[in-house]
Amino acid sequence: MSPTPTPTHPPGRTVAGPLDGVRVVELAGIGPGPFAAMLLADLGADVVRVDRPGRGPLGGDPSRDLTNRNKRSVVVDLKTTQGPETVRALAARADVLIEGYRPGVAERLGVGPEDCMAANPALVYGRMTGWGQDGPLASLAGHDIGYIATAGALSMIGTAGGPPVFPANLLGDYAGGSLYLTTGVLAALLTARATGHGQVVDAAIVDGTAHLTSLFWGMLAEGTWRDARGRNLLDGGCPHYAVYETSDGGWMAVGALEPHFYAVFVSLLGLDADELPDRADPRTWPALRATFAARFRTATRARWTAVFEGTDACVAPVLTLTEAADHKHLTARGTYTEAHGVTQPAPAPRFSGTPGTLRRPPAVPGAHTHDVARDWDVPELLKDHC
User: Fold this and answer.
1) What pLDDT is recorded for position 385?
2) Three-state secondary structure readout of the chain
3) 20, 77, 143, 375: which one is catalytic?
4) What is the mean pLDDT of residues 267-296?
5) Average pLDDT for residues 129-143, to the nearest whole number?
6) Are 245 and 294 in contact (CB under 8 A)?
7) Is position 143 annotated as part of the catalytic site?
């Protein structure tokens, strides 16, 4: 199987998505800001990315940077006299502006909230940072791994007695950062459209990541969660919510929490539930884990996948990115797709009436200057471009 191609212009449809008509200015950065803007663009917003002159901070081929898909790009030098004026002109015609500078930088450049909202009081000004706009660490540099460490989330991930395991930059940058910025911006946009007044959205990765742990704070309060890694129901401490290695070095993920799912899991694993220790008693977990691990090591990942597939055992093979793109369920749903010659995740979530679309490939810096100047009626762009 291969990913399902996604048409760039679905037949019979003129609406790009539920955010069709929303204008967004993105001041170029790295990490969570671009991803948040990509999500808005996937849902139909007209996102104009303001790139800096010269090579990007991370290098690489901009035509392969999928976080810049569905966007248009202009190049503006904010260190010139004309640059900030051009950005303010874009902001005057936008609904949302997103920036990811350290606190105070946008103000020094002349594109802070007061500057941009002076001519557009309804503007929603989204600020994406790691530490937030205030606090003792606000002015310091940082990255995902440090933010999730400080927020307490990193301490929860990994095996008991082992080091914390960081989940790429999915938990901090994208879950705690991008998705909270997007939620905040859209909520503020609703208010702006109802009242005519925009506002500043302070999206800090430490705040969002801490917010993601709300469930566990409740469990701590009731005494059902230990503040120790790898010793709880959902952190790998529980033997029937864990991963196990197969005979060929593959891995199977087990999530048989409920009793009826657990019964199916144990049966298909070839074990007699009546002969196993009580799964509800954490003192039996090491013995149960050893039993399950020994069974999984008797066959390959493919064999165990065939055993559990199509059942309610809640067991799945741990797939790589490329394997996931070929999985029959994800292929049937079009979860991964091929657009503009690249396999990539399709827009999410899904809408019955105004689905998101993949209209444009990743924006190459400066490629849309003339189009944006015309469509947004910003002649300053052409002056800056010259």
Assistant:
1) 56
2) CCCEECCCCCCCCCCCCCCCCCEEEEECCCCHHHHHHHHHHHCCCEEEEEECCCCCCCCCCHHHCHHHCCEEEEECCCCCCHHHHHHHHHHHCCCEEEECCCCCHHHHHCCCHHHHHCCCCCCEEEEEECCCCCCCCCCCCCCHHHHHHHCCCHHHCCCCCCCCCCCCCHHHHHHHHHHHHHHHHHHHHHHHHHHCCCCEEEEEHHHHHHHHCHHHHHHHHHCCCCCCCCCCCCCCCCCCEEEEECCCCCEEEEECCCHHHHHHHHHHCCCCHHHCCCCCCHHHHHHHHHHHHHHHCCCCHHHHHHHHCCCCCCEEECCCHHHHHCCHHHHHHCCEEEECCEEEECCCCCCCCCCCCCCCCCCCCCCCHHHHHHHCCCCHHHHHHC
3) 143
4) 95
5) 97
6) no
7) yes
Q: For the segment 208-223, what is each residue's pLDDT rounded down to a tens digit?
A: 999 999 999 999 999 9
Neighbours of 68 (CB within 10 A): 28
Q: What is the pLDDT of residue 132?
A: 97
278 counts as catalytic: no
Sign of CA dihedral 273, 274, 278, 283: negative
| Amino acid type, 2 | S
Residue 148 identity: I
Most confident of the ranges 4-8, 270-274, 317-321: 317-321
Among 42, 95, 144, 173, the active-site one is 173
